[in-house]
Amino acid sequence: MESPLSRIIPKMSVFEYYTNSELETENLGKAYAECLKPGDTVFLFGSLGAGKTTFVRGIVSYFSNSIVVKSPSYILVSIYDAIIPLCHIDLFRIDRFDHIIAGEIAEYFGDESGIKIVEWAEKVPQEFVPQKVIKIYFEILSIDRRKITIETINESNNSECPAS
Fold first, then answer.
1. Given its phi and psi angles, is residue 49 left (phi above 0), alpha (psi -120 to 50 degrees) or beta?
2. CA of 105: how far to CAs of 10, 13, 47, 101, 129, in Å?
3. Within the chain, which residues score under 70 in pLDDT?
4. For residue 130, what pLDDT is reported?
5. Is 109 helix (H, G, I), strand (E, B) or coil?
């Protein structure tokens, strides 16, 4: 019998992957992109050089093979005109959220027509975090090896999907 709480608290699925090269990390991003749909927001967490932008490159290549992805660290937002519009937000250089930055980011989060991908997502104030967000954590294990953990909420994502 289903618990009454299961209808209130969304179920979460956690998937762990290990990659041994930049190419494997990019390919994992490309495989995971198949799971994404318009309206999804993906938060990426990890230290500098952990593979966040490489993973984004894989996602973008799934939707368009002609777009070149660079880390948008010097600009806040890059919009990629692909099969599904992609909004790549990089908060690396943001020290604090002021009302202007918060308003701009919140506007993107509210757009259901595309996919939003946020690097350095730990900098997003809790009050601006969308209710349904996919969280991906990158951990450096060695010079080439990465542990990538994907947390999804089953009600908005196929629990069998992550790079299966």
1. left
2. 25, 26, 21, 6, 10
3. 1-11, 71-74, 99, 154-164
4. 84
5. helix
| Cα separations in angstroms, 20 against 26, 28, 43, 136 | 11, 11, 22, 17
Cα radius of gyration rounded to whole Å, the chain: 16
Q: How far is CA 159 from CA 98, 145, 150, in A?
A: 36, 25, 11
The token pair that represents 111 in the structure block: 């757009």
Q: What structural domains and CATH numbers belong to the chain?
A: 20-153 (3.40.50.300)
How big, in percent rounded to 5, are the helix, strand and coil portions of the chain? Answer: 25, 25, 45
Q: Structure tokens of 107?
A: 């506007």
The first and second tokens of residue 77, run together, are 């937002």
